[in-house]
From TrEMBL:
Protein origin, superkingdom: Eukaryota
Single GO term (MF): GTP binding
Pfam families: MMR_HSR1 (PF01926)
Descriptive protein name: G domain-containing protein
Domain G: from-to ranges: 27-153
Gene3D superfamilies in UniProt: P-loop containing nucleotide triphosphate hydrolases
InterPro entries (UniProt xref): GTP-bd (IPR006073), P-loop_NTPase (IPR027417)
Organism: Hydnomerulius pinastri MD-312
Amino acid sequence: MLADHDVEDEPLTSYFADVTRECNAFRILLIGKSGSGKSTLVNEVFDFEYEGSATSDYSVGDHDINRPILSSTNRSLILHDSKGLESGSDKNLNIVKRFLNDRKNGPVADQLHAIWYCVEIPLGGERLFEGGDLALLEYLKSSSVPLIVVFTKLDKLQFSERMRLQKEYASKGQDSKAMRNAKEQYVAAAAKKYQSSCIDVLQSPNIPKAWSHYCAVSMKQPQTIITLIELTKSLLDSSETLDVLFSQAQMPDVNYKVNLSLRAGKNMYRMGMFASALPLKGIRKVSLLKVLSVIHSDIVQVWNLQDPDEILLGANMRTMIRRLFVEPLILPALDCVAAASDGNSAQIIANIAGACFNPATLIGPAVSNTVKILDDIADATPSAARVLMAYIIDLTLGMESLHWLVRHKDGKTASEKDVIEAFSHYHVSENRKEAHKKIRNFIGDENILLSIQRDKVLSKAGEIVGKCRIDPKKMFKGRQ
Ligand SMILES: Nc1nc2c(ncn2[C@@H]2O[C@H](COP(=O)(O)OP(=O)(O)O)[C@@H](O)[C@H]2O)c(=O)[nH]1
Ligand SMILES: [Mg+2]
């Protein structure tokens, strides 16, 4: 709560700014031999590309663990990279130990937030860990940093099992074409091998038990990457800051982003409904417009899309969201535009969205009207509740559409055209219509009390988003 004396100048603090005040990037250490798939993995999880190199060039001959690796493609991650420790490499072992020790204490921003210990799944009886690795694992037993052993290149093991089975079939005189339909078989055979050559070894008494979690990943199997993300997330539960930063930094786990997007909205909803409604001494009325702009930047930051032209936080973007999603709520007649013109409503909506990015047509009469209305609303009315709820839901689902659109592009950056396309797509979708119908049904004008029951409204918002999620397959149907 605001203290009386600094009320006048206290800006509206966003949930995101608040949670990330002490630390604004997730810091991770990757350990693993050269070629074990570390760079590939961070690219899959974080869209993290090293400057000037496609894969692993940065590491050639130089794994300086102390050097934080940053990337302009994802500013929410700080990476440290260390090669695996061969036997007898005491020097390297000591460097890693010193690094871990140096980062044990101190501010949370300097600490290490997770360690992924990468080991390539052996195909032909190679050793999982070298002697130096064992010494390091022994040392890591006393570390409190979440550690996950990540077995990499699962697809290669599956492929090699497939080949082995194919030969076996052939040697028995069976048609090797039968193998084409034998995916289940070779996946199961690979799982068995993974169990004996990785899990059993990891769990054997001679491997120091520094780890409590492990998983297998493949760059060709997105679900395995999500499993690693969920596992890492499950180890961060005690820190809201780290949970938020990791959710922001990782890219493929859309559910994780949607949940955080709603959580960010939830905290600001309280602001929107209460700071204005309660006659607390000294607290200024906060206009809904102001609250919406904070919700906007919080939700946009969660999605962490590459936005070189700074479109997503700009005034034009906020105008577009108001125009497409808020206006129809406060001035229902405007919703007819979309409803009446089914045939090419997508184009009409895209035109309206596009106009918001064109300064010459920026402020139409409807827009300035809404701005005024929003600026005047500083009360806990059902109408304010609907606007807040819709803003959170629409922006979350619109950003989800944009996320899918951008992920399918080379370079993965959001352009103005993408923004217009994604939000128009969402606007004319059944998802949006359904979401708005549910919002209106939920908060009717008589529901003044309901609208200030934050938890009810927000669990409802979560439920609505859950039912109206974007289906990327549908979204890209008909596109080449
Ligand atoms: N088949 C397959 N190859 C992979 C996988 N992960 C990495 N690789 C390949 O392994 C090689 C080394 O990967 P890299 O990420 O550079 O390893 P690093 O030296 O540990 O950073 C590259 O050619 C990658 O394409 C995977 O999951 N499956
Ligand atoms: Mg590398």
